[in-house]
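name: query_chain
kind: protein
chains: 1
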Amino acid sequence: MTMFKLALIGCGGIGAYHLEHFMKMDDVEMAAFCDIIPERAREFAEKAGGQAFAHVKAMYEAVLPDAVFICIPPYCHGEVERETIARGIPFFVEKPVALDMALAEEIAGAAEAKGLITAVGFQCRYDNINEAALRFVRENKILTVDASRVGGIPDTPWWNKRALSGGQLVEQTIHQVDILRYLLGEVKSVYSIAGRGSVTDAESPGYDTDDLSLSIFQFESGVFCHLMTGCYSKNGASWDSKMSFGTRESRMEYRLCVDVNIYGLTEADKAETVEGIVAGDGTQRRSDDEIGQCTRSEVDFGMLCDRTFIEAVQKGDGSAVRSTYRDAMKSVAITLACNKSMETGLPVALRR
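structure:
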């Protein structure tokens, strides 16, 4: 068996997530690890084999991998990708791919000019629940979506600084934004507002990002979406994060990486059969009163995402990759447009 030589740049938490997948692949050889903190690269090399480096150029001069996974913080993108592209190495990069669209466009264009296969870490696209979600969207006219993601502040030194992470919408809730795009198509315009004051410096020293934000998306299809995201939570009971897709007669509730529940499609689950509903008063049923159709997440979508990229490089065919660099840029553009709207107080149109 010919071993696939893989390198990993960025040996932090998300790098460890990918490494777990690689160590389960019989045809993958971990050839090299690189991190600006040398001890972290050495720890990965001791665990999985391969050489450890502190500088990307030194790594590539010693080892030319078949592909590389780039798992670096949002503010660090640029030179790593340029060096990788210059050497003709296919690459997988974690989201968000950049905090500046001009940089992302430069990287995308350079990779395409070289004919490189690329992929981005939107693992949720590979979840089996998307089959049911896509079918619902195709077969039912969506009018509106109410989406949310609430959590706390990750224990990562750069995350609570908006200039370094982009804020929660850019760094975390981009997963929800990407799934919205995957299901509904492209966004035409956004309008966002943000709030601060709940999270204190004592809780998170140096914190200078938004506690929460509210955004309105207008999709090119005419669908409207309201997205709320916050990093203020101290308790898992503080919010129920999900996305509700509404039609005139039914709805779909999508919980990222968990399940899809669809209500109102069967005769036994229509509002007319439920006692207590008064037409026109705005009252709707609670989910626990309904029958619904549930599809649960049953696959290791992260492994599928990584494996799809590796097999694409092995075959020289990137058609199975569900999120290329060029496509992922569109999700990043939405979140950065939201940030711009927060700053200016004005709606922002997305470039077509």
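note: The chain has a mean pLDDT of 94.
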